[in-house]
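Collaborator request, handled under Task 6.
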Amino acid sequence: MIQFSIITVCLNAGQGLLDTVARTLSQTYENFEIIVKDGGSKDGSLEKLPKDARIRVVTRQDTGIYDAMNQGIAEARGDYLIFMNCGDWFYSPDVLQSIAEGIGEQREPLYYGKCFDRMTGQVRAYPKQLTRMTCYRTMICHQATIYRADVLKQRPYDLSYRILADREMLWYLVCEKKVEPKYLDTVIADYQGGGESADQKHIQRNRADQQRLLDTYYPKGEQIKYRLMMALTFQKLRVSLSKSPKFSKYYFKTVQALYDCKEKLTHRKGR
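Structure tokens returned to the collaborator:
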């Protein structure tokens, strides 16, 4: 029976921490542990956590969110790891059961699914196959990603990427290690949106790290090719539509339909 380690990192997260832990404890699948990796909270939130043997609180100073996650990885005892940030939670009580059934006996290194975006009120559409091109174009939801524990224990998050370490991890696995992430047709996370990468004060650092990341995994010629493809498919308009409370519903339905159509065509060609 697969054991999951749900890692939630925090520092004075207040009610967000309590809500996330409560939603995790409501899962119908019971073989999991919750690692609350705390950086030294003083807001009293840790004292309000439920008394449950599945919760382990690890309080230790860290240098930021990914260092905290790496410390959580080192503490994890489960077969698969899921990072659920404070204020985010599993979409429904049967999510872990669905993930366990999707993994089955295969035990692949990396799985991912869909997420509900609370900012737009929509389920975000993701490609059902992650290639170099789709990784360049789309970042899957970190909270809806499931890593086999040994993958992250052998090679934790790169702390030189203060904001984009989860993207760097995905590109490292897909582009360098040739891992083929497996898609689970399940809404895994209820995601509040925002976060450090969306904060305007980090925009310059984000830009510099993004270019460094590109130069690490994509040759210049490939960058130019994908940049041109993005421009020809109206990238700025698509981003605007995806963030619009008014139009995001229609945008994501259209994108999901295109992904489904592409999958059907791929299956036909494979016969």
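The cover message to the collaborator said: "Residues 248-270 form the longest helix (23 residues). The longest strand covers residues 182-191. Please let us know whether this matches your experimental observations."
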